[in-house]
Structures are given as C-alpha cells and as structure tokens.
Design a protein that fits this description.
Blueprint: E1 12-14, E2 18-21, E3 30-36, E4 42-47, E5 66-72, E6 81-84, E7 90-94, E8 100-104, E9 114-117, E10 123-127, E11 133-138, E12 144-148, H1 150-155, E13 171-174, E14 180-182, E15 195-201, E16 206-211, E17 216-219, E18 225-228, E19 237-241, E20 244-248, E21 257-263, E22 268-276, E23 288-292, E24 295-300, E25 303-308, H2 309-316
Parallel strand pairs: 1-22
Antiparallel strand pairs: 2-25, 3-4, 4-5, 5-6, 7-8, 8-9, 9-10, 11-12, 12-13, 13-14, 15-16, 16-17, 17-18, 19-20, 20-21, 21-22, 23-24, 24-25
Length: 320
C-alpha cells in the first residue's frame, strides 16, 4: 500500500495505551520544550519567563533567564538541573550517565551552540553541533546524534561539523566534546538526507526516515547502515520492535496517521493503517511527537501519551 492508498477511505482510530498528566511546574515557571530520553522518560525543559509569549520589548540578556531540566517517568520527577538559558530554540537530551546536552537549533558560523551540563548545571564543555538541528538524541553510550533540516543538511553543513576525511551530512554522531564520530556521507546510496524528518536513537540501533524519498535507514553501532525504499511520505516519527515498526504522521490529513509495517531483508510490507485518536491540529499542535525504541510519545493538552508497536500490532491482529 502506498501513502495515497487509504487516504480516501475511513481508517480505524487507535488511542494511546498510556496517558499521564504532565508534572506541575510551580509558580514562576513556564513550559518551553520536551524530549524523550534513551530510557523512555519524558525530559521537561521549563524557563523562568514565558518565552512563547509575544515579545513587545527586546529579549532579556541570556543570563537573566534560568532554565530547569528534569526527567519524568509518569509518576516521579528526577533531580532538577538549573542553568542560564542561552537559547530561544533549544534541542536537548539527558545523557545516560547523568548530565545533559543542550544546543541552540540555530547556529551562526563559528558559534559554539551546544553545552554539556553536569547534573548541578555546571557547564562542562561548549562546542558546535552545527546549524538547523531538527533532532538531538543521546544513545546508550552517551554519544550525541543530530538530525538536521534542509538548511543544515545542504547549506550550512560544514559549520563546525564533520572532521578530517568525514563529510558532514543530514545525520551525524558526536562525542560529548563535539568531536564528529560518524556520518553516512552525502550520497548515502543515492538517497541523500535532505531533511531528517524522523530520528529514533535506541541503545544500540538508530532508525531514521527522511526527505525526499523517505527511505527507512538503520544504523548499527559500528556505523554500518542499511536502507529500505518506502512509499509512505511525510513521516514524522518511526518506532521499531524487532521486525515490526510504525511510521507516524504525514502531510495534511495524514498528520495523525499510524502505519504498521513489517521489515524483511528486502522490503517494507504495510500491514495496517490507523489514525491516532488525539485532537492535536494545526491550531492546537502537539508539543512533542517523537518515537524512542518501540514507542511513540506525544505531549498534547497537558498530558504525556504513549503508544507502542505491540499495542498497534494487537489492534491490527498482527503477531510477531
């Protein structure tokens, strides 16, 4: 089934299997952004001022705004990390051994737009991860993966990225000091990463689905990678559980689409198509829509919603 099939027919709706209210922020703190850690917790970034409100005056000096990072498992919050918030458009994740990586999604040439923070907020390092960061996720070994939208993948890809003999790309892996460790290269077997729409960094394997042709990319710890051609376009997130997976999202009316597929050595077989039963829209967008490991995570309407590959497979009557 191609992405156009199913667009003109009604699809079954599927609800999240787990929903939890977001933790209370407390007086004087404002929602800014969310991420999902490698162990599946919700990372929450709050600010000491409302950075999403319309601005009528010049922005305060960076050090006048405090950021607060914490990870939430649905019931309990972890330790809170306070630091000067220097970025309007942060991308961030928690490191598996403690501490955080936070970066400004936009970067000028020559700018160190990333920080390695200790758990107490101390800045352990400053370095450049490049411009136009669409995704930032840390793997189980504490390495940083960045996926870039087209400005970073095509126009500004040399800004602080790459290294000796390494081509900068729309997907890169870095050490916590900013040293570039791996890149698939620009060509990528005829499917260059123009815009990294979806990225799922697991403890070992990394999965991506990207513009323009939306192939499914698997990267192993060694850097060896494999590509599958795919007809489902506009994918915003990808979840994987062994040989079963989900392609989530799409263009226009497919923004809530959930595609269950089976992966063989040679092909992507579509097994079922659902619509996610949540009410986010262009007018009321989800604050987060991302997959880690086998689970889709959505933050919307002051709740954290989760849906796993197994949940969708059971709804479709598909077995491993």
């Amino acid at each position: 089934m191609s992405s156009s099939e199913g667009n003109g027919t009604a699809r079954s709706r599927i609800a999240p299997s787990s929903t939890a209210p977001l933790p209370e922020r407390g007086l004087g703190w404002f929602e800014l952004a969310y991420a999902v850690t490698v162990d599946g917790r919700l990372a929450c970034l709050d600010a000491s001022r409302d950075m999403q409100a319309p601005r009528r005056e010049p922005s305060p000096e960076p050090t006048s705004t405090i950021g607060r990072l914490t990870a939430f498992d649905g019931e309990w919050q972890g330790n809170q990390t306070y630091f000067p918030l220097e970025f309007d458009y942060p991308a961030f994740d928690e490191l598996p051994g403690g501490g955080w990586i936070i970066a400004d999604a936009r970067c000028r040439q020559g700018q160190d737009n990333a920080r390695h923070l200790a758990e107490d907020g101390t800045v352990l390092g400053r370095f450049c991860l490049g411009d136009a960061i669409e995704h930032l996720q840390c793997d189980g070994e504490g390495r940083i993966w960045c996926g870039y939208w087209d400005e970073g993948a095509l126009i500004n890809r040399a800004w602080g990225r790459g290294g000796p003999g390494m081509a900068a790309s729309g997907l890169m892996r870095f050490a916590t000091d900013g040293t570039a460790l791996w890149s698939p290269g620009v060509a990528l077997a005829g499917f260059p990463i123009v815009d990294c729409y979806a990225l799922n960094v697991g403890r070992k394997e990394i999965w991506s689905c990207y513009y323009t042709d939306f192939p499914i990319l698997r990267v192993e710890p060694s850097g060896k990678h494999h590509l599958w051609s795919n007809d489902i376009s506009g994918v915003k997130a990808i979840a994987m559980d062994r040989h079963l997976g989900l392609l989530i999202g799409g263009y226009a009316q497919d923004s809530h689409r959930i595609v269950l597929f089976r992966l063989s050595s040679h092909e992507v077989k579509i097994l079922a198509v659902f619509d996610l039963d949540l009410g986010f829209s262009r007018e009321r967008p989800a604050r987060l829509l991302v997959a880690r490991h086998d689970t889709l995570h959505v933050v919307w309407d002051e709740h954290w919603h989760r849906l796993s590959v197994t949940d969708v497979a059971l709804a479709a009557g598909v077995y491993y």
